[in-house]
Specification:
It contains 22 helices and eleven strands. The protein has helices spanning 2-7, 47-52, 77-87, 96-103, 107-117, 122-140, 145-151, 157-168, 172-178, 199-209, 261-268, 275-282, 289-294, 306-315, 321-335, 348-351, 363-377, 387-395, 402-412, 424-434, 439-446, 453-467, and strands spanning 17-20, 25-27, 41-44, 56-57, 188-192, 215-218, 221-228, 231-239, 245-252, 337-339, 342-344.
Length: 477
Amino acid sequence: MEKARQTRDPRFDGRFFVGVRTTGVYCRPICPVRIPKRDNVEFYTTAAAATAAGYRPCLRCRPEAAPGTPAWNGTATTVVRALRLIEQGALDEASLESFAERLGVTSRHLRRLFMRHVGATPSVVAQTRRLQLAKKLVDETGLPLTELALAAGYGSVRRFNDHFRSIYGRSPRDLRRRQGRKEQAGLTLSLSYRAPYDLEGVMSFLSARAIPGVESVDDGCYRRTVLIDGVPGHLLIWHRPDSDQFLCRIETAGSASLIGVTDRVRRLFDLDAMPDEISGGLAADPGLKPLVNQCPGIRVPGTWDPFEVAVRAIVGQQVSVAGATTIMGRLAARLGTVSDSGLLFPTPAQLAQLVPEDLPMPRSRAMAIRTLAEHIRDGQMDFGDDPQTLRASLLAIHGIGEWTAQYIIMRACDDPDAFPINDLVLLKMARQYLDVSDHASLSTRSEHWRPWRAYACVHLWRAASRASSSQRLPGQG
């Protein structure tokens, strides 16, 4: 950490924070201020841990603007799941006791796990996450402070002002005034990532799978209709030229809470990945090394809506990418909801009522979709479960096999080690680049890629796309 701090290495931005004893401030390792002496600093793996230690965020380098750290970077399954739920706002309304009960542990044990792996309690992590979003909204938007407080997940403006003042030593209004911010309409946020980034690959992947009427990719801009706190809205996401940032435009009719929106966008574009670490691990395989060198910033595209991608995985069984996209469009047009913001993909409650014979697919797949929808609607399945629990729940549904389950886990749970071993294109590219003959030998070879098998999979899919850009190959979902 000390070497990264001294060199201001951007690869470590967001992976640790530096508390400066002489100023009481914590910074990103890339902070442009004069580097403090080693004896005057302490290192923290998370912003929440630095906050819990009594440090306040630096106004110069803005810790809230740093790239995130993947939840799976922790070592405890319970902590990983809890962090994902906190990012979605699960602790904004619930008590710590009910939150812990949802995770199947006691609140005391959960606190102990968080202190060991994160350096702060779940409540402090949730408060830090809420404050970080509020600070971004103060700095980057003209949103009125009353709406801003609600959008950041605070129950009241007074609570927001008190928390902000206790951490920053000044009110949000004073900070905005000092920075010369004008309170004007508009809500566009910047989202940082660690370079390099395979922008072309991610946009091509999302474009080929965009559900007609619901989402699209045009001129490098991803657009889609969303539902935020029951309010229809629209998202526009594009890359800021000559930077390591995406811009996200959020358009809603009301003051919806945005606490989970940025997290979902980050997971959709895999913005928290650590490309150097991933590339280093995969390049150790001589067969993969040329692919890694060709595309060092590979990402695993996620999803805005886990249920939506799960339906797509079932639809995409033994169907080309283009064919699955067409069917998803018909499904959305027939059973989705038309709003002022555009077409919304059907909810689990809506698809639980479908008549299998009405869908343009084999009855077994339609039944699998309906069963999946019923399980999600009734709370029998949760995409917030750990990957192995979710896999078992998915495989228990007739019509869902290993490929489908792994594809869902890869994109809906951002599991870096998910691996759809039975994928036809994957095997074809593995035969060409890795000299493997069948799925069994590919499975054995892939053991050396852990925990980055999902990224290896995307590298092989990317190679197939480069080899035949005009051909829509089956088996890629």
